[in-house]
Amino acid sequence: MILGLFLCLLCVLTVSKAAAPAVETVASADGILRLHVIANSDSEADQTVKLAVRDAILPLFSRAESYEDARAFLLAHGKEIQSAAEAVLKEHGFSYGVQLSLGTETFPERVYDGTRFPAGAYDALCVRLGTAEGHNWWCVLFPPLCIVSETGEPVDLEHAELQSVVWEWLRALFASE
After folding, report:
1. Residue 35 placed within a domain
2. Edge to edge, what strands does the sheet with 136-142 contain?
3. What is the C-alpha separation between 81 and 93, in angstroms, rounded?
């Protein structure tokens, strides 16, 4: 009886890869505004400061209700965005500058919050740090989908896995025997 209850509980707690949510693909890049932050280099310090710049500028973006509003916000607040990025660089001891541009950038395919953004050219705010020769970070500013994990990486909800603390505990318990 106890073994049966245990097995029943184990079945309930077993969590496998979640079924992939329905993914909608955007029809075109029209009305999409992306953010692209490019690090000075691939050094650990430059990659760290790239994420710190991202963390400093993301809260500045308004919750625009249209693509036009989002673009107008960027044009009106470019100096504020640049100043925030420069302040982070200075705080981290870097003297190289920040260059902002609003134009067309090429991005790889990504899935954010159930929406697939095919690889291609999108309007984007590009934030270049120093020589901009390092790895980059990107997200979707409008519609607002800049979702990041605790590690600072974009959350790919299409491939997310559910985890159970209880399941991991039970697995570790039986693995040690």
Report:
1. yes
2. 98-107, 120-129, 33-38, 136-142
3. 19
Let me know if residue 127 belongs to a domain: yes
Tell me the sheet residues that pair with 99.
Answer: 128
Residue 164 lies in a domain: no
- Residues 119, 108: contact at Cβ < 8 Å? yes
Condensed to tens digits (0 to 9), the pLDDT of residues 51-95 reads 999 999 988 887 788 999 999 999 999 999 999 999 999 999 999
Coil vs helix vs strand at 94: coil
- Is residue 36 a contact partner of residue 103, using CB atoms and an 8 Å limit? no
d(CA 55, CA 17): 30
* Residue 166 within a domain: no
**Which residues on adjacent β-strands are paired with residue 137?**
37
**Domain span at 108:** 28-159
Whole-model pTM: value is 0.70
Q: What helix, strand, coil percent values describe the chain, rounded to 5?
A: 40, 25, 40
Q: Which conformational region is residue 88 in: left (phi greater than 0), alpha (psi within -120 to 50 degrees), or beta?
A: alpha
Q: Looking at the 3D structure of the chain, how many domains does it have?
A: 1
**Are the C-beta atoms of residues 48 and 39 closer than 8 Å to each other?**
no
